[in-house]
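Researcher: Sequence of Aminopeptidase follows. Predict its structure.
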Amino acid sequence: MWGRRSIAASRRAALEVRHRVAVRPSPSFSSSFPSRALRLHSRPKLPLPASSLHLGFTPARFCSAEARMMASADRDTLPDVAKPVNYHVSLFDLQLGGSWGYKGIVKIDLKVTRATKEIVLNSKDIEVQGAEVLSKDGSQLAKSSDITYDKTSERVALKFPQEVAPSDVVLVINFTGTMNNVMAGFYRSKYKSVGQPSADTPKEDDFNYMLSTQFESCDARRAFPCFDEPNLKATFDFEIEVPKGQTALSNMPIQSERDGSHTGLKFVTFQKTPVMSTYLLAWAVGDFEYVEAMTERKYQGKSIPVRVYTTRGLKDQARFALECAHRTVDYFSEIFEIEYPLPKADLLAVHEFAMGAMENWGLVTYRTTAVLFDEGKSDNRYKNRIAYVVAHELAHQWFGNLVTMDWWNELWLNEGFATWVGWLAVDHFYPGEPILLMNSYRVPEVYPIVPEIIPIDIIPQAEGVQQAFHLDSLRASHPIEVPVRNALEVDQIFDHISYLKGSSVIRMLSVHLGRETFLRGVADYLKSHAYGNATTNDLWSALSKASGQDVHGFMDPWIRKIGFPVVTIAEEPGQISVRQSRFLSTGDAKPEEDETTWWIPLGIKSGNKLANVDTRALTEKSDTIGGVGDDGFYKINKDLSGFYRTNYPPARLAQLGQSLGLLSTEDKIGLLGDAAALAVSGEGTTPALLALLEGFKGEQNYLVWSQLSSTLANLRSIFSQNDQVADGLKKFTRELAGPAAEQIGWEFKSNEDYLIIQLRKLLIAMAGNSGHDSIVAEAKRRFDLWATGQDKSAVHTNLRSAIFSLNVSEGGRKEYEAVKEEYLRTDSVDGKEISLAAMGRTKDPALVQDYLDFVFSDKVAIQDIHSGAVSLAANSKMRHHLWEYIKTNWASVEARLSSNNVVFERFVRMGLSKFADHQIGDDIASFFKNKNTGAYERALVIVADNIRTNASYKERDQPVTLEWLRAHGYA
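Model: Prediction complete. Tokens:
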């Protein structure tokens, strides 16, 4: 359990009485909320039989024995009276404007397992006109006599006057729905067309529209009535009526087209899908064009087309994603030893998208900044992002789509693995090349983004694993494998635990087993459960068999227990003692919170140049290790391969800080992250952290500088209200980063290394934001040339973020308005994200008010509202205005955000977690006490934990931090 549940009491009560007869409401579509490797194998690959693709073949291993035996008591699931085998979904009479309604018929081949007068499906924002049960020969067996809705559980009950006997039947449902504008279910996205759109492209006011779907986790039910649970797999036939000038896409290739019900319309019918979960079904309609490449490998004798679709005028920006995609399909086919199982692979850029991307089988959808790159206009960091997100989503085509978690509690099986293997692919194609922010062999755990849940690069690139550490150090954390009673809970566990901790634990296991052994086990797992569902234990069994080790035994605590350990080291003559305990950011773990004994790979580097490596593991609460440090030098957790903190004695930490030349990049990042976290928890000190940071003045690696930057930003944030400490830390940052910024300079060179580009941006921002006079002056000079139109090239594409932010922060309304205007008129795919984030750096309260009004206006897409919260939260002098605005304008804030719970939760969590004041924490708790917080209840618990941690840290370390800064000439 999570400790404090994320379901409102009213919801739980409603679920417990879900079988009561529902009062039939008039279905409303107005205000419902969405719930929410290497090339190393020479063994023969496993081609999947054509019959399994096109005939919906379901192997006997549809579910694992364990999954079939799961008692229903721990899950709130649909009644098991009927199981879907195939859906035929037909959508027609789409109102492309006005009401945006549509009509539909779904025919579901069912296996009725026992006599029943009622069939219950999932349905939300759908009105069912009628339903009937037919025999396989088409004769009517029963017609619905009553249709009732339970809005809380998102179900529709179809009642029949006579029993339907156990048999194979066809359930036919006539329904109507709405193409909503809340980025969930079947929805519409508005955009300004770059090219001349086709005449029948939907248009309202100054915007054109495209249509697409987003069904994960539980929103297929918003498009058509269905059995919307991941282990109720079926095949799908899909057809849709669209204008003849529009392109329709779905999971499978087009099978046929025919004239529609009116002139100018056509029905597009698609081939049958493989057996899959409802959340993977997808379709899209729009004024699309595409770029295409064919796979180099042959699949059943021919290459597969890989395409990236965009709205008209944008396809050239999709070429980099295409380059990544077609090679990644081949790579994963090789390392997973199973050929890509569909006859095509499409990627689609969607203009309004709450997530970052979605792995729909054969039709992966992305927000534009995760798949489009405009050479010469886009910031290079987006190139790195695209390579990774494309690989992550394509990994899901096997790990998640071909083999699906049995239930939402094992979401990490999908996301943790896809995160790890996504970087494996990036490293394979770009080993050490400029695009690569991190080599996944060298720094695999330092992930940059979480594609489904984090849509912009708000996590510093060297900070991904530190974000997982941070969330998992709170009492509000949860195990990687989370108990999920009802699927409506699952949106709030799409977080850094499922993705980043999950992937870090997978990486730790792969290092221990050896990558070849690990991937061989994964391939066996995929083969054994293809087209079915599987559990964590199924994966452990496959890996145990491949390795000959008890993977269950040493991995289960990592998956099923909350938190992670800190390994505390004590030194004695000729030996060290190591002790593990649960790490909490508050440093006050109670005995009942510290009962887990983790298997911890120690990875002890010692000897001359740290050349000796001891691979033993700590399997007890404590142990003594002899022969370590005899020569006076050692390092625990080689290359940060283990997911744990290390607490060295102060003298050892200082010695490591003076021997940075012997440490790998990963070692440095881990050393910095551990020291910072231990200072917060009270197991270390801020003076010890600052002394360590001082030793990095000569550092040249971007990833290490990114960790330095985030560490100092957090210190400056927490101590921001004490002017003396704030000024001291500002000077400390300036003297640390200034010389490096001066050395790297402003000018970009042709074919410059990617990491140098990123380092230049980072150092200019660090030095500028800490008051480096010449950096600030140059940033202002370049901005003025750009803003006045004298020289638009004065602000380099890759320096927009740094220069815009510096000028808004140091300037006034003129600079703010110039960046605001850039937001409104930019045609750069990343321009709006960069501009919106920069505007939130203003130090003028009046402009903060204007900024927040702008963020909540229709000028900013709902998908981007949280960017405003992130920017202001990082603005330590102004962040309190965000909280005051939320309180004062709650009705309008709630109205704007409540259409999409994923966005709502993100806004609350990211916007309010930076405070370091107990009083504000109490005020937040009081304000939300009587609010309906079901969509973001867990976010509020995280906010409370963060504020409590920050405030306690500030109160404890502020005096000693000021004392150290004074003693060293910074204050």
